[in-house]
């Protein structure tokens, strides 16, 4: 049998680890400039062009699952990847 303190330490360590890694890469806010089209096997993903609120000159294409329209603000966890163009 394991000591009860082990479970406390295990929980504390993983909670700290996940909170610490999430603080290293904060979300970036981006506003939807244009809805380009639907993609996915059943059209469940919308491709949009977004402009970052902190860097007004940067525009990228992203895939969004769920309802989205022009003017919406997205919180992007990862901002380096760009979606491929629709065919």
* Total helical segments: 1
Number of strands: 4
Q: Uncertain segments of ≥5 residues (pLDDT<50)? A: none
Fraction of helical residues: 10-25%
Order of helices and strands: HEEEE
N/C terminus separation: 58 Å
Using only CA atoms, what is the Rg?
19 Å
Q: Output mean pLDDT.
A: 83
Secondary-structure content class: alpha+beta
Q: How would you describe the overall organization of this protein?
A:
Helix content is 24%, strand content 36%. The protein is an alpha+beta fold and 87 residues long. Strands 3-2-1-4 form a four-stranded antiparallel β-sheet, with no helix packed on it. The termini are far apart.
Q: Keyphrases for this structure?
A:
87 residues; alpha+beta; 4-stranded antiparallel sheet; 24% helix
How are the SSEs ordered, and which strands pair?
Elements: H1 4-24, E1 28-39, E2 45-52, E3 59-65, E4 73-76
Antiparallel strand pairs: 1-2, 1-4, 2-3
In short:
By secondary structure, the chain is of the alpha+beta class. The chain is built from one helix and four strands; from the N terminus they run H-E-E-E-E.
């Amino acid at each position: 049998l394991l000591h009860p303190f082990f479970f406390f330490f295990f929980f504390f360590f993983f909670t700290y680890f996940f909170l610490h890694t999430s603080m290293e890469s904060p979300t970036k806010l981006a506003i939807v400039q244009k809805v380009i089209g639907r993609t996915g096997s059943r059209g469940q993903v919308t491709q949009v062009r977004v402009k970052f609120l902190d860097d007004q000159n940067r525009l990228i294409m992203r895939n969004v699952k769920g309802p989205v329209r022009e003017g919406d603000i997205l919180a992007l966890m990862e901002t380096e990847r760009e979606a491929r163009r629709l065919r």
